[in-house]
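$ ./design --mode recover --in tokens.txt
reading tokens...
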């Protein structure tokens, strides 16, 4: 057997596939975990939230080994990111609290929401440039945690239910999108007040948001199967429809090359969009019902969690 054929055969045996000069790999997580969000850490490991198992998992892609950190009785974790302190920060709707998990000791620090917000249905978190952690709750809540003091503040969202994805621009501005409220909003990080931006048309269902290196905001439109780009300086939108999609654009993540990663539930695929060429590339899952809900990554790697198949997935180029 020729060496190149042997290499390809080995890669396929390990679960690798290739598409458009990129390689896709899958990693099984414990059955019933229903992994929701992922966060690729600087040390090469990958955190994921076990939404149905109530734990935070940590994958070592080199060995396939998984560590699991129990988050507490009733836990139902949703989002996870790696903070500037190197810890994993988790939004936990079951505990109605944001959590900090120490990467070395695995100690879990709990930051409960104020009693006025008993069922926020916490969703996603982000850090601003001052080290303050901001979060959303689908039941009409957004707020912040000051890690140095532990103080938690929360506000009612302007249009009630819907706050979902949240992100920080390079300049430190914090924006969130509301799925049910059908809008984009900028948070004043001093006062906490939210200023609304209407979508390019009604009923798009903004689900996730991410900033590129220029501060342009990329938004996934769940109801219409589109990706939108909002320019805060020009106050203008531009949209693109995912190939053959009529609905189901869930996640959005912008990598270090300003390429936009999306997930298309209707096509059961991860999609990469190059704004420079305005071309899409699709990476369909090799199993049905993958349901990749959010993506994060690091240079050369885009990670997601297949919540429907109990696997993590990475696209490498």
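writing sequence...
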């Amino acid at each position: 057997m020729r060496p190149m054929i042997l290499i390809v055969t080995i890669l396929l045996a390990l679960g690798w596939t290739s598409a458009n000069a990129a390689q896709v790999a899958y990693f099984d997580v414990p059955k019933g975990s229903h992994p929701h969000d992922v966060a690729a850490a600087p040390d090469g490991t990958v955190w994921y939230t076990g939404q149905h198992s109530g734990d935070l998992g940590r994958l070592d892609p080199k060995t396939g080994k998984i560590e699991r950190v129990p988050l507490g009785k009733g836990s139902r974790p949703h989002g996870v990111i790696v903070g500037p302190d190197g810890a994993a920060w988790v939004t936990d709707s079951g505990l109605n609290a944001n959590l900090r998990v120490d990467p070395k000791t695995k100690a879990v620090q709990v930051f409960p929401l104020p009693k006025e917000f008993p069922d926020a249905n916490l969703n996603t978190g982000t850090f601003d440039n001052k080290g303050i952690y901001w979060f959303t709750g689908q039941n009409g809540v957004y707020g912040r945690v000051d890690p140095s003091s532990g103080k938690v503040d929360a506000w009612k969202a302007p249009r009630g239910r819907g706050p979902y994805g949240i992100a920080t621009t390079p300049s430190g501005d914090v924006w969130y999108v509301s799925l049910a409220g059908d809008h984009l909003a900028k948070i004043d990080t001093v006062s906490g007040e939210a200023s609304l931006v209407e979508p390019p048309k009604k009923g798009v269902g903004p689900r996730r948001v991410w900033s590129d290196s220029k501060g342009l905001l990329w938004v996934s439109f769940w109801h219409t199967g589109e990706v939108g780009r909002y320019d805060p300086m020009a106050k203008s939108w531009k949209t693109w429809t995912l190939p053959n999609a009529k609905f189901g654009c869930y996640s959005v993540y912008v990598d270090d090359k300003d390429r936009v990663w999306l997930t298309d539930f209707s096509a059961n695929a991860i999609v990469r969009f190059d704004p420079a060429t305005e071309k899409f590339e699709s990476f369909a899952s090799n199993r049905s019902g993958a349901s990749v809900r959010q993506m994060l990554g690091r240079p050369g790697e885009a990670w997601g969690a297949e919540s429907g198949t109990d696997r993590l997935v990475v696209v490498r180029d």
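exit 0
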